[in-house]
Amino acid sequence: MEIAVLDIKGKETGRKAQLSDSVFAIEPNEHAVYLDVKQYLANQRQGTHKAKERAEIAGSTRKIKKQKGTGTARAGSIKSPIFKGGGRVFGPRPRNYGFKLNKNLKRLARKSALSIKANDKAIMVIEDFSFDTPKTKNFIEVLQALGIDSKKSLIVLGDSNKNVYLSSRNLKSSEVINSSELSTYKILNAKSIVFVEGSLEGIESKLS
Fold first, then answer.
1. Which end of the chain is less packed: N or C, by CB atoms within 10 Å?
2. Residues near 19 by Cβ (< 8 Å), separated by ≥ 6?
3. Sign (positive/negative) of CA torsion 153, 157, 160, 162?
4. How many CB atoms lie within 10 A of CB 83?
């Protein structure tokens, strides 16, 4: 698959980038995509929720009334879950929501997500660029030139570029990542994906 390489002003450079069919043109596996996105979201959960159970409540363990003769249900400690201020029955405990996935399945999920975006014409390739100083205005001008300033976008760099990253940090609708940080969730969460030319080789070699 060939795609035109653009400059930061949104104009064609006259060069073509070759996108590997084994990465950008496969038959998407929706279940693999689902599992990978589910794992990503599960890993974002802190899992620090906690409620005190009966044994953890501070209070007397004295039997609060006699067993028989009151005409009401028998009762023991004031820490019982049926009383106000008592412990909670089977309350939430801290836990890790993460789970493991096969590496080949995760690779298949990323390729499937990239193929979905390629099929939707939501992928662009631009030549390598940088800024002399971090400046959000310069980054917005690039997005406007590419026609994606009003869309949720993902810019994928080949190598870390501090000035480009800092220039984008104030924008909620755009995210800049390195090719090593590319995930199925980030691919699907963006309306447009912009690959810097230098990032393609590393992505294809990692996923092929």
1. C
2. 1, 2, 3, 25, 118, 123, 200, 204
3. negative
4. 14
DSSP 3: E
Cβ-in-10-Å burial (0-12, 13-18, 19+) of 126 comes to buried
Tokens 């620090």 belong to which residue?
Answer: 48
Distance of CA 20 to the CA centre of its chain: 24
Q: Where are the beta strands (DSSP E) in the chain?
A: 2-6, 12-18, 123-126, 153-157, 174-178, 192-196
CA dihedral (49, 51, 53, 55) in degrees, to 10, reads: 90
Residue 15: phi and psi, rounded to 5, are -105, 155
Q: Counting runs of H as helices and runs of E as strands, what totals does the chain give?
A: 7, 6
**pLDDT in tens for each of the 208 residues of the chain?**
889 999 999 899 999 999 999 999 999 999 999 999 999 999 999 999 999 999 999 999 899 999 999 999 999 999 999 999 999 999 999 999 999 999 999 999 999 999 999 999 999 999 999 999 999 999 999 999 999 999 999 999 988 889 999 999 999 999 999 999 999 999 999 999 999 998 999 999 889 7
Is beta strand 123-126 parallel, antiparallel or unpaired with respect to 192-196?
parallel
DSSP state letters, 162-205: HHHHHHHTT-TTEEEEEGGG--HHHHHH-SEEEEEGGGHHHHHH
Whether 203 contacts 158, CB under 8 Å: no
Size of the chain in residues:
208
